[in-house]
Amino acid sequence: MQQNAPRTPMESGLSIVEIMGAGDFGEELEPASWQERALCAQTDPEAFFPEKGGSTREAKKVCTSCEVRAECLEYALSNDERFGIWGGLSERERRRLKKQAI
Fold it and tell me: Which intervals of the chain form a coiled coil (predicted)?
């Protein structure tokens, strides 16, 4: 019997840093130094990738006191991250920020 693939970051057993470091084809890349210092590395990944309509409050609270928040946000903007909370902003908030910068 074949096992079903994990549907959520929590089910995969990966940390948020491991998820962020994964390449397009699923290979594990060495995390950037800012990712090693990210507070989210010690937090449940589910908080950063809530189901549609789910709360982002916990993730944003973690981001508020994270020393690498700016680097995280820059990474998300540069790589056009479409899902999750990055640098304290949701995908919608990042889109708005990019539009304002144009």
Answer: none
